[in-house]
Design goal:
The structure is a homodimer of 467-residue chains. Chain A has 467 residues and is α+β, with helices and mostly antiparallel strands. In chain A, 38% of the residues lie in helices and 19% in strands. Chain A has 18 helices and 18 strands. Chain A has helices at 11-25, 33-38, 60-72, 125-132, 149-154, 162-165, 168-171, 200-204, 238-251, 263-273, 291-307, 319-325, 327-330, 332-337, 354-370, 397-416, 432-439, 442-453, and strands at 53-55, 77-80, 97-100, 107-111, 116-119, 137-138, 172-178, 184-186, 213-220, 222-223, 227-234, 257-261, 282-289, 311-316, 344-347, 350-351, 377-380, 385-392. In chain A, a hairpin with a 5-residue loop joins strand 7 and strand 8 (184-186). In chain A, helix 9 (238-251) crosses helix 11 (291-307) and helix 9 (238-251) packs antiparallel against helix 15 (354-370). At the A-B interface, strand 8, helix 8, strand 10, helix 9 and helix 11 of A face strand 8, helix 8, strand 10, helix 9 and helix 11 of B.
């Protein structure tokens, strides 16, 4: 655990706000230590900074009441979905009140004819897809974790099928949010497109709760494809695998997922899952469409792969065989952990133009090897986004130092390659130091917007921008 | 021509700013009346409000210099692309300096491997596609007019193929802009996705130049499809045509365009283009993909159309025949003008959830008929967006009154159906009165952002939000 600097606590304000909230909500305002710690950051190397109290509202009006009380007493408000964010987004560095959305988990409307739905922010993506099952529709964004949709919007999440369906910014039609002054604002209607004024929907997506608290989401839905095919192919090098990815994009194949596993991850998966994949870079793909079209796409990809030295190309539309084919990807997280049991994981999240992906991976692998860091890679190759996970013994001070330096260097590398230090995890506390390096003067206008919308800096302070 | 209220002129500031600009730019600062009038609004019923001077910078540095000088003297800055906006976006209600981007029209980079390019804002979409021709790539957004890409981003434009490729908000990776303080900001890198802070890219898209002047755009490109097929089908009613559109969407057919022409438009096109289409609602479609896939998509749509009483279904992948099939759409603008030569056109732009489209069109047609207004319809049916064009004799005061009332009523109708008064034309001056009706409290936060970023209100004042 590495401490992140705390920010100034408004001790009196927090005490008063918690007192007023306790009067209004009784024992629904929870202040027990273990609950508070569960609502701080728990997923990565960033130290846990618990809030002063946790409350689970049951509707927009209660959220508005909580925010109004906190605003009156200049008390921080930290929204919480499932706590699966990776950059400290749910930490409370200046204390304050955590709004836990687990009781705002209703699907409010499903509009089958319009391929949209309206949900409360605590609905998780799996819960939504379970509820949609009978409609023939689904919500495509899949960040891995069964995250809440409010949290996914707040971090501008994406994941394995962003290459086809886009990220949260592309799949939210409109939001309702409680703003820092306690007022409720709706950013749009259910029309598929609109040119009506500033795009507050997109401004709140990725704002990590620093501009307002999302209380409803209107989401685009997709028809469940008639057929799904999966494919896998081994490549002599990361460069060859990336070449195949670029050709696939240029050819216009509407691939739904295209994931890269490096040699080290394949080795880990072989050991963990008793597979016998050749220990070379591996691409895993998924195609969505009609039966004919997924067969055609699979074969076309096979042809592309062959021209890049791809071997052991397999594809199937059978669902059991598909699961077997993707097992390496599903097991990757636990398999790589087993490479060094007990080690801490430093997850990185850089994203570069795909023309730079092969070079970026190669340079990163070379330095990791030189620095004696164990760092397997899984990547959303179609977007140029990859996660290098450093397995670090935090008790080894020198190794810890090398790991931290490596992460900083990798972020800078991505920026120098016209990329970003965060493809999908957000800034939170962990990436705050890199935002200005990446976007320069633009961060000043972000700060102006933050001050204008949240002049008291009560909304999730200490995230994205320096307090 | 209908006057829009002027806003206060800063007479001294404008005079001083123009004096300083004349010293720096010599006769490149143009103040002749006809040039100024060409740079005011010229396309619809909104009266022309020319700027005090027009200048055509040759790069970002010159734009920054112009904005800095205007900022110093609190002088309005109005960006101008090709002048094809429809809601008065280029008017200068408080006077000021028009920045004409016709000399910033270079394609700066084409990155074939990454399917992106970087362009100056004065590049038009046709010029870009001409330059891309040899690469096998294209930029998909097609608003009809050969608009500049800076202008298209500023109004969040879309058009006929948004149903497949999205709008400008989905096809811009990053922007460079000169901000109201004269500083240059870059909103992002070339990575395909990013979670790095507030989405300033999307904030500037659709801001109509009120938050900053776009000086560069990084655009996503698409592979030119191997094959394109077009189809047309006549329907007994708008309701049946919309039913077919909804089923097409639910079925997940990746249609590239799906346009609705109402009976009146079909009648106009028959007369204008010597066609003999049945005078019933018509859907025109386009499919992009491999040869097999466009054939499959066409046949699948044919099956859907049949179940909604569709007749005279035709499809073809032959390019000459495709053009003939779409002739009705290409000629629609001039054909409908010929329904009443000399009349003024009031263009509307509402967008509703597609489940409401048939009802919305029916109610609108019924009222137009009751009000004795000639009002043909062309619609981007796949998005629920349609343009009803009122052909009005502005000399007939009573008809003019009915037309204005109708437009207001139609905007309210869309809002009451969970839709928007502007699907793709923007707010400008023409829709300003409806923005708050549509988005309520959210407009207050738009105003906060505007004040924070542009405290002097020099960037295209009198647009989107009240001055």
């Amino acid at each position: 655990m590495t401490a992140i600097a705390a920010i100034n606590r408004n001790e009196d304000g927090i005490k008063t706000a918690c007192g007023v909230l306790a009067q209004r909500f009784g024992d629904r305002l929870v202040t027990g230590r273990s609950v508070r710690e569960q609502h701080g950051h728990t997923t990565t190397w960033i130290a846990n900074q618990p809030p002063d109290a946790v409350i689970s509202p049951r509707g927009t009006e209660e959220v508005a009441m909580i925010v109004s009380i906190c605003a009156e007493h200049a008390t921080p408000v930290i929204p919480f979905g499932t706590g699966t964010s990776l950059e400290g987004q749910v930490n409370a560095p200046g204390g304050g009140v955590c709004i836990d959305f687990s009781e705002m988990n209703r699907v409010l409307e499903i509009n089958e004819d319009d391929l949209d739905c309206i949900v409360e922010p605590g609905v998780t993506r799996k819960a939504l897809n379970a509820e949609l099952r009978d409609t023939g529709l689904f919500f495509p964004i899949d960040p891995g974790a069964d995250a809440s949709l409010g949290g996914m919007a707040s971090t501008r999440a994406s994941g394995t099928n962003a290459v086809r369906y886009g990220t949260m910014k592309d799949n939210v039609l409109a939001l309702e949010a409680v703003m820092p002054d306690g007022q409720v604002a709706s950013t749009g209607k259910r029309a598929r497109k609109s040119s009506a004024g500033y795009d507050l929907t997109r401004l709140l997506i990725g704002a990590e709760g620093t501009l307002g608290v999302i209380t409803k989401l209107t989401l685009k839905l997709q028809g469940i494809p008639e057929s799904i095919a999966s494919a896998s192919c081994c490549f002599p090098s990361v460069k060859d695998a990336c070449g195949a990815v670029i050709s696939t994009a240029q050819y216009g194949l509407p691939v739904a997922r295209i994931e890269l596993l490096d040699q080290l991850t394949v080795r880990a998966v072989n050991a963990f899952s008793k597979l016998d994949l050749p220990e070379t870079p591996l691409l895993l793909l998924e195609f969505h469409g009609s039966e004919d079209s997924v067969a055609e796409q699979s074969r076309e990809f096979g042809g592309i792969a062959e021209s890049y030295g791809g071997e052991r190309f397999i594809w199937t539309a059978n669902s059991e065989e598909r699961n077997r084919l993707w097992q390496a990807r599903h097991d990757a997280y636990w398999a790589t952990r087993q490479l060094r049991p007990g080690a801490s994981i430093f997850v990185t999240d850089i994203c570069v133009p795909i023309s730079r992906l092969a070079e970026c991976v190669r340079v990163a692998q070379e330095r990791a090897s030189r620095d004696e860091l164990l760092a397997p890679i899984v990547g959303h190759a179609g977007d140029g986004n990859f996660h290098m996970s450093l397995l670090v013994d935090e008790n080894d001070v020198r190794e810890l130092g090398r790991a931290k330096e490596f992460v900083g260097w990798l972020n800078e590398l991505a920026i120098s390659m016209d990329g970003t230090c965060t493809g999908e995890h957000g800034v939170g506390q962990g990436k705050m130091a890199y935002l200005e390096r990446e976007l320069g003067a633009a961060t000043r206008y972000m700060a102006s917007i933050k001050s204008a919308i949240d002049p008291l800096n009560i909304m999730n302070p200490g995230k994205i921008l320096p307090a």
